[in-house]
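Blinded run. Sample ID left blank on purpose so nobody reads anything into the name before looking at the predicted structure. Input follows.
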Amino acid sequence: MWIEEKTFTFRISLEAHFPDDYEGDQDEQAWVKEWERYIKPVLLKNLFDSLRQYPAWTSHVRNRGKSADDEIEVALIRDFSPEADNARKPYG
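Blinded prediction complete.
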């Protein structure tokens, strides 16, 4: 089987800004915990909900050995092989 690939990077950088008198780690990085607990799960759910609108494509999380705290790779696959599910039709 012939496989072609293209990589697209969607990077999110988190920052927290504090007043000048901040001593560091006073909040025990509550802002990171907020990202991990609330924002990231909703973002991933919405991403996969959106991708499901294109039934000719399949998607899944792919682990390349990095911690999910630092990186989540999503594999998006379009299969043109005869063995592919014929029920998957391109959109439009």
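Unblinding after everyone has recorded impressions. The first helix runs from residue 30 to 51.
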